[in-house]
## 1
Amino acid sequence: MAHLPPVDTFDYIVFGGTGDLTMRKLLPALYYRFRDGQVPADARIIATARSPLSRGEYQDRARQALQEHIPPASLEADTVTRFIELVHYVSLNGAEAQSNWADLRGLLDQEPETRIRVYYLATSPALYGQICENLSKQSLITEQSRVVLEKPIGTDLQSANAINDSVGRHFPENHIFRIDHYLGKETVQNLIALRFANPVFERLWTSDAIDYVQITAAETVGVEGRGAYYDRSGCLRDMIQNHLLQVLCLVAMDPPVSLDADSVRNEKLKVLHALKPIRSSDVAIYTSRGQYMRGHVNGQTVGSYLEDLGEGVTSETETFVALKAEILSWRWGNVPFYLRSGKRMAEKCSEIVIQFKSAPWTIFANRPAANRLVIRIQPDEGVMLSVSTKDPTPTDSLSLREADINIEFEKAFNIRYPDSYERLLLDVVRGDPILFIRRDEVEAAWKWIDPILQGWSKNEAPLEPYPAGTWGPEGARNLLAQSGHLWHEDMK
């Protein structure tokens, strides 16, 4: 067991404390950090929700959540008992000024105002502004208070600005932590190390050597219990606007002058500003969207998206998106970036594929395949580089065979790779914003996404059906075929 230096003591106040995010991600993440010695014994986790529960009843739910979402080998009975003692509960509707704020105030007043307070808003984004206003009216925002906003920040640029304005009235920008759990994934963070600590890669990280880049986030699950939310959002808002654009920024950004948070985020912002606009009239050329139908996933028959939403429901919401992005810069001129995400796909995987250019001429009888670097975000986090080597089978000629240099990080370092929330939750306590999204990044991303949404609303790129358990609609393959390219699974 690793014992790491603890952070300063804190109160973590979670609005939406009975929700799926809290039970499935936040409580397990805090347990792991407590088990490994980073959460002080006098820290408090204060869950709030409208449900009229006692502290003991909520602690029972928290214990059950740990048992459901943490492998038995990681659950230590004594540690679980001590962790559960950190957990408190307050019945409160944070969006209502007339709700019972006295109990929360009473808990917080037990500790000095110099104690770090983190307000985690695991609620609908529509409630963010009202919750922050109520915290301010109740005099619960101190100099040591921070607020965490879950994505999505709005559904377009206008609504994102409204949310950011409403929260910004009560918290300064450097105390607002817009969380994107993809940035907490070790492999995504490792992009910075892979590029800037290894000159062999960074010197090839340009259009001189790279043919194209693919970024994929594929899921085998459907909408599960999130149908109401997902049908208002869709894949473009849910995955591309935040997660995949953030990964694109880390792949494409120029070297920051330091690892200072603003230095890194300034470089990411430059990438967003350099994205070639996709006009609404051009969405059929640069995008593909689809919706899953009945099919087979992992040997099981699964229903369509409409069936998952409920009987008699109709919807034009996309569950799959592929798009071609271009970055107007010297480093990336003429290098397409293909982004793809979808539900009910053939495999669960998130990966970045850096496809290098072929040699202009070869001395070998069989032409060597172009080198390819695959960075696996999940599962089996790691890096794989394809290279051409001499075929070891006895022949009379020097023929070539493709081989892979494969590194799985968990095996290489012999450690459990932490969930993304583990790092991010404590980064808020530390006040370290490097892995969080600045307001101007949110605005730049929406400015690029909005014209695509407008084009789709006019049906400029029709919604294509695709069978569950496949890699999406035919339009996604055609998107790459225009340039003679293939998606990674088509190369295998």
## 2
Amino acid sequence: MSARYQVTGATAAEISASIESGIRHATLAPGDPLPPVRALAAELAVSPATVSRAYAELRQRGLIVTAGRHGTRVRPRPPVAARRAALRPPPAAGLRDLSRGEPDARLLPPLGPHLAALADTIGPAISYSDAGTLPEFAEAARQRLAADGVPATELTLSSGALDGIERLLTTWLRPGDAVAVEDPGWANQLDLIAALGLRPIGVPLDDDGPLVAGVAAAIAAGARALIVTSRAQNPTGAAVSAERAADLRALLAGRADVLLIEDDHAAELARVPLHPLAGATAHWAFVRSVSKPFGPDLRLAVLAGDETTVARVAGRTRVGTGWVSTVAQRLVLSLWRDPAVTALIEQAADSYERRRRGLVDTLAERGLTAHGRSGLNVWLPVTDETVASTVLRDAGWLAAPGALFRIASPPALRITVTALTDPDLHPLTHTLTQAAHPTPPPHFTA
């Protein structure tokens, strides 16, 4: 813990508020250790039970995490805005940033012409009672999902994939419930689960998706929900294969005690076929975002599922935000219908495929096994993430440390390919080779 910050308080509520204040003011930084329960209790002249309650409340809200002998620490990305550290600091001057996990802005469709056309045709303002999912949008979404084998009789919208996943989890689960998630998995999703007070159970995966034995073990351990990334898994690029989908469907068939959530966030950008699990369980949902192919500012996702699940999500939305903007719906519908936009999305998908495959193949030539079957990222196992990140920075590169995405899986780096060019491949691969297996320093001799 930072020497500059002193936890105060005489009750569990006051102690937890003091620690939260330290996080909010950035005097307690992400990853900072907190004192052991008994040590802090002695320092504050309170009982250990009082400190334990404070820590338990902070853990349930996702602000801190306890990791066995490593003690209790501030979470890497706690769900509270810090006044000085709310924004991720920019990389140092001269570094090539391969850490962001974002699409190439040059390959996103221009929104201006579609917004201009929309302005001429949108008509009068709608009323609160008329707002909701536009029938023409819902029909177009159903057709697009049906083309990929996803049943979409029941359908609603959310403000992006993570918003949809949050609504699904909060309508079916309660704090303390267990959720089976991919390990390594999407950092934002892991943060969300912590913030909701849910308990993650890591499921190992390979290039074909979550391992069946891992899913079975998570369910046996009490998981009430299972989240699967259909393809372009973040961070590994895994995509559920036809054989893996069949095995998972057989395992999950007819279960009424597990909510199945599928995340197809890359959608049109994924250069592998979709093998959905939709309908395998009694309660399920398939979430497809438009942000990766069409632009991060388009906060809209289509959510299909069984009647009860969709009704719960739609009902909860109605008493909260109400609906996803009909202006956004009309804009996305216009993009879907434009052949030039479709061609640009195809070009973007081909570009990401070429860059990702180029990096994986070039690493393989140097004896390194990296993962990147689909999507925007390559996952490279390394011996030590800190050392590997330092080697990269010294050579002018910035990658995301695997710790952001891991529960119990081994160390690795996530490299986003969207900023790479062909001439980058060989110098980057040379550096990654050094980073993955650094040469130990020479031994001192007497």
## 3
Amino acid sequence: MSILHYLSEEVFLRIQDLLIGNSVYPNFKFLEKSQYWSKEELKQFQEEKLRALVEHSYQTVPYYHDLFNRLKLKPKDIKTKEDLIKIPILTKEIIKREGTLRFTSSKYPSSKRINSSSSGSTGEPLFYYTTRDAYSLNIAANLRGWYWMGFRLGDRYVKLSQNSRKTTIKILQDFFSNNLYLSTNPLIEENYDKILSKIERFKPKIIRCYPDPLLLIARYKKKCKSYKFSPIAINTTGNTLYPETRKEIEDAFSCKIYDAYSCEGNPTVFECPTHECYHSAEEYGITEIIDDAGNLINNGYGRLISTDLHNLAHPFIRYDTQDLVEVNSTPCSCGRNLLRIDRILGRDNDIIQGSNGQMFIVHNFTGFFQIDHPKIKKSVDQFQVVKTKDNYIIFNLVVNNKYDIEVKEFIESYWSEQLKYPVVVKVVNEIPLTNSGKRKFIINE
């Protein structure tokens, strides 16, 4: 380990924890060891956390207290992972219907909670609370995945995102962590050129980005032969990485992709160094894969149901992530006993192209509806964006009682300016599911 790596990991990371109030350092050290635990050790750890979670939720969370009483369950009835089947599956619709406060622990006042929101990749932004411990453990799990890629704290890396950096603390974090943060917005060739020029000069060890914008940048890179720099690896996350997309990006950047997946209430899932599969950070949560009949499966395709063992402020117990994955019980050659996921089918993603050529991906829209903007008023529960054959943009919205004509006019005005197409907002009762049980949030007719 070089002096820079040592200082970054053993000194700077601890100082950052101290300044922000996180616990990434101890969690990362824990995860470095626990990744090689036996299946029995992992199960024992999970079930100790599960029993504490269930007792805590029954005693301090109104929704779970009432649910257990209605089902005539006691916390002592949930002792093992197998006992979880006694608890009904939790959906995003239930959380929205019941309200955030019904899921908030009375032991976590606002001073001890962190506001959080889902990525909204099903078209349903969800606002909830989390804890510093849960937040820190998730960061540590991602960092462990980066170490699988060959990265070490102190190495240069580039993070590409649709959003710009605004807060001082994030800018300082970028500086001390050797991160060059670049916005992929707008998705036009002029910006691709700026991004690639900066990457060429910065020479990062790792690049992190969502697959959709990175694919557009990769195609531009292949056209412009002057851009020759290649990182040692790329980390993709945020939406489904399809094989053809992986191949195009890897060919353009001459390196391997390590894909990752996460969502609210679910452990970080990171691609194994062998590239045989993904591994779930089982130290964070319990993952169940169920078939269409609700039966647990160990091999094959199914829905991912997750129990968050660490977020005590807003517990997610048997939460339906709305994602489909392929699970495999065959041991991975890397020697880790963490849950093996061979494929993440995830949610379909698409791109809408504005009349000026600019591309818009799902995260442009989810980011718009997630922000606590006074003109949006958190009034949109679900959305779907449709580009019609005659080049109209239709926003199908499921709204709540905060929605009014001002919200409608703001959405139409904002997106007609962005997309350079006529925009129409339609309020609907529901957005229908596809055959796979998902909502398609972008449609090009």
